[in-house]
Amino acid sequence: MSFNRYKDIIEEGDTVILYINPQAMYAIQAQSVIENRKGEKIENVMQTKYGALKISSLFGKQFGSKVSLSNGWAHVLYPTPELWTQTLPHRTQIIYTPDISLIMFMLELKPGSIVVESGTGSGSLTHAMAFRVKPTGHIYTYDFHEQRADQAQKEFKSHGLSENVTSQCRDVCQNGFSDDVIGKADAVFLDLPHPHLVVPFAIKALKPSGGGRICTFSPCIEQVMRTCQTLLDHGFVQLKTVECLEKEYQVLNRTVTTFTTASRPPPPASGPQNITEEPGNEKKFLACIPSASPRGHTGYLTTATFLMENRPQPEEVEIEDACEK
Ligand SMILES: C[S@@+](CC[C@H](N)C(=O)[O-])C[C@H]1O[C@@H](n2cnc3c(N)ncnc32)[C@H](O)[C@@H]1O
């Protein structure tokens, strides 16, 4: 299975997105047999709101086709990074597609880019970035939580992304990035509690030619202020902080009844009135209506460019101790 190369037919071991409707989508591992709690091998049957699905019934089916559930139907889709972000098992808070698109745009990622990322978290952003920089680019991603780093590594492998992603367990606030990335990165992305502590290490990771980009994701403005000050102190320029707020519109059929002066019913007396609308006064049209519950704040994205000539001398830079924070 590979997110990188499309295939047509579902086989054992593939990751498949079971799409019932926009609110009910599941990432499933196509395995015919699984172990139950007692360690016994049993047939893998998935339960959904619309009934059961025998996973082995998917083998040989084409991605995109319609499949029967015991009380309905669904479509089986090929996994893309966007669908994965909507269905992945959450081990942490994750970054969603609207922020992801903006991050990749602001970091100027393209095929061949080398990116250093921390923390890996649930790997939502990593999948999208790996897809963007393939076939020759690479994402080096770090998380200090051992199980998260291991699980992410397993997912990158099973999704065929190992050629484009290296995942390591490491505390980047304390120890910076590993030696193999020093001077290699076109871009650094930080989504962890103290991004300002990582700025000096980010400089080491960025290409010495300069012009490298950094982006940090921070849920609160105090963290943004601290990060911006540190970026300025370390020679970054073109600082910009943005917040990505998605406003969704629904396109719906609507009907309004218009009244001419002659056909307008008299003002109601007391009690309920039975107003019958005259034919010909109804107007049907397509309306564009803002969603009743727009998505709210996720985080602030701060980007900046590193200029080599602005690089501070070693004695000018103090690397703060993470333990003091
Ligand atoms: C919010 S999650 C990242 C989510 C990720 N961007 C995604 O889209 O799935 C933050 C991660 O940073 C990791 N982290 C926090 N401090 C760290 C540090 N000092 N070094 C490395 N990882 C760290 C946490 O373990 C956590 O998994």
Automatic annotation (TrEMBL):
Q: Which catalytic reaction applies to this protein? A: adenosine(58) in tRNA + S-adenosyl-L-methionine = N(1)-methyladenosine(58) in tRNA + S-adenosyl-L-homocysteine + H(+); an adenosine in mRNA + S-adenosyl-L-methionine = an N(1)-methyladenosine in mRNA + S-adenosyl-L-homocysteine + H(+)
Of the GO CC terms on this record, one is:
nucleus
Please classify the protein's predominant subcellular localization into one broad category: nucleus
UniProt KW keywords: Methyltransferase, Nucleus, S-adenosyl-L-methionine, Transferase, tRNA processing
Localisation:
Nucleus
Q: Reply yes or no: does the keyword Methyltransferase apply.
A: yes
Family to which this protein belongs: Belongs to the class I-like SAM-binding methyltransferase superfamily. TRM61 family.
What protein is this chain from? tRNA (adenine(58)-N(1))-methyltransferase catalytic subunit TRMT61A
What is the source species? Answer: Acyrthosiphon pisum (Pea aphid)
